[in-house]
Amino acid sequence: MTLCIIKVPTYLKYDKIAKGLIIFYVGELMSNKILKGTALLTGAAFLSKFLGMIYAIPFNEFVGDKGGELYFFAYNPYSILISISTVGIPLAVSKIVSKYNTLGYYDLGLRVFRSSLLFMAITGLLAFITLYFGSGWLASKFIYSSEEGNTVEDVKKVMQMISFSLLIIPAMSVVRGFFQGNQVMEPTAISQVIEQIVRIAVVLIAAFTIIKIYNGSIVLAVSFATFAAFIGAIASCIILLYYWQKHRKQLRKHVKVSQRPLNISTKELVIELFSYAGPFVLVGIAIPLYQSVDSFTFNRAMYMGGYEEIATVSNATINMYGHKLISIPVTIATGMSLTIVPALTESFTRQNRKKLFVEMNQSLQIVLLFVIPAVVGLSALSYEAYGSLFGMKNLAITGNLLAWYAPIALLFALFTVTAAILQGINEQRFTLISLTAGFLVKAIFNSTFIHAFAGKGSILATGLAVSVAVLLNFWRIRRAILFSYKQTLKRTLFMVIYSLIMWGIIIILKYICGMFIPYEESRIAAIFMLSIGVLGGGFVYLFLAYKTTLIDHVFGGTNMLNRFRRKKRAN
Fold first, then answer.
1. pLDDT digit string, tens, across residues 477-495
2. How far is CA 441 from the centre of its chain?
3. 27 pLDDT tier (thresholds 50, 70, 90)
4. How many helices (H) and strands (E) does the chain have?
5. Whether 429 contacts 278, CB under 8 Å
6. Euclidean distance between CA atoms 166 and 241, whole angstroms
7. Per residue in 110-157, pLDDT tens?
């Protein structure tokens, strides 16, 4: 067991611990909690994203590029509003609950939860009103010309349908944040997966029924597909209610053994809550914010640049179907960010600098270990991936755009995890500066780049914008706590080398298989080639990472790997 000493906030000085110190007994390293929590949340998030990608395959068959673009137009403003409603306050609740639980004041965490639950219910109602009644104005700004694509009325209708989910999801997400702050990750993970399964089932049933059975319009099918978010949210609420009943006695027991109640007003708690919530909101809206620039400028820039014939397919590829593919690697960082904030907050609050640095290095390296090869592999297999999942039509355009877009996943992942680290070390306000800088870069260069490079211009502008934000975050982390990136950079170099070797293997496999398999012409052949490339390339990368003990070092020499190695040597 380890003794740890921390400074107590100034408003606690009148308590028994007037000297400003608390002695904590810390049994198990928090890194184990990080790994377990990350595995659970990342697994759930990955499964949700994977299901989101899989359902897009039949959905694309039903509604095509026009329906995909329409879906994006509806989801982008919704994503921004839902991020403000479900990412800011809930994750702030997670951080505050973790903080006060660490200090032994469980009753304060419960007070914060109740206040934020009421606040989020009001916020959700306001968000619903904003999107429902503002849908017409937004639609008129998104649509530049309806000659080749969707109309203003089409976009308005799907926006209004998706807005209903805003009535439920914000308040529901606070419950998830409260569980995470208590380091109980299962309710968030299970409810997230159930929500996605129910939503996807409704999407596909509605699209199939309307398009295939009743021969209805694409607009009607997409409208019901967006309304599925509301149905999925109801299912998630039921799951969370079950877990609340399950853990209610334990939570009450914690409150009973709390330190003597503090005379902290609700106003003070709310101020603290919002001081944390603002940066969390910025992290949540980062990707939708960059995409919102495309919502307002993409079509106009494509038409003015003379690319009107490929505007719809390019927009759907980048912001709908292609984005679902690159969001899978980003899920790793998202799961990590949800988990490390309470853990880093605890280490930072206890001023355990050594442990804090270990956790930060581990967080960055776990993300890089998986995201770098995923990005390289997706770029190498972009034509096969898009053709397999969404069809061979316009593959010269769609495959090329995906190859350019894949590396952006690494930048999004790094922004997410570095922003989470900033949250954990109480530098969350800086996220506003880095995200604003990135957003301005995207807004300034987007139209110009699209005029010059068509759809790839939007990707280049996004890459430049997110790079600026990530570099600023790295700089701030380094300056705030004198954190050294030396260890992470060394291990990242090996990850890059192994990924490049993997890329070479994939290219060789494509060359050999191309002699016998027409994977550039047949969808079945493309699926076969994609499977060979993923299995072959993935095996090579994991084999190299395992044999050189890179995995051991990143995960801290896990017991499972050690047992496996001892058993192998014994045999």
1. 999 888 888 999 999 999 9
2. 22
3. very low
4. 20, 2
5. yes
6. 19
7. 888 888 888 888 888 999 999 999 999 999 888 876 556 678 899 999
Checking if the pLDDT of 256 tops 70, the result is no
Closest CA to 473 of 524, 513, 414, 522: 414
- Residue 455 CA from chain centroid, whole number: 23
* Strand 2-7 relative to strand 21-26, pairing: antiparallel
Please provide the size of the chain in residues: 571
Q: Which helix (H) or strand (E) holds 98?
A: helix 89-103
Instruction: Give the tokens for residue 359.
Output: 């956790």
- Residue indicated by tokens 């989101």: 52
- Residue 97 CB contacts under 8 Å (≥ 6 apart), including other chains: 109, 112, 113, 177, 178, 181, 182, 342
C-alpha closest to that of 128 among 72, 177, 85: 85
Residue 148: per-residue pLDDT: 60
Burial class (CB in 10 A: 0-12, 13-18, 19+), 17: middle
Q: Please report which residue ranges of 351-429 form alpha helices under DSSP H.
A: 353-380, 382-390, 395-405, 408-424
Amino acid at 128: F
Confidence of residue 569 (pLDDT cuts 50, 70, 90): low
23 phi and psi, to 5 degrees?
Answer: -100, 125
3-state secondary structure of 7: strand
List the Cα angle 69/73/77 in 5-degree steps: 155
| SS3 (DSSP) at 23 | strand
| Locus of tokens 């306000």 | 429
Residue 205: phi, psi to the nearest 5? -65, -45
Model-level pTM? 0.74
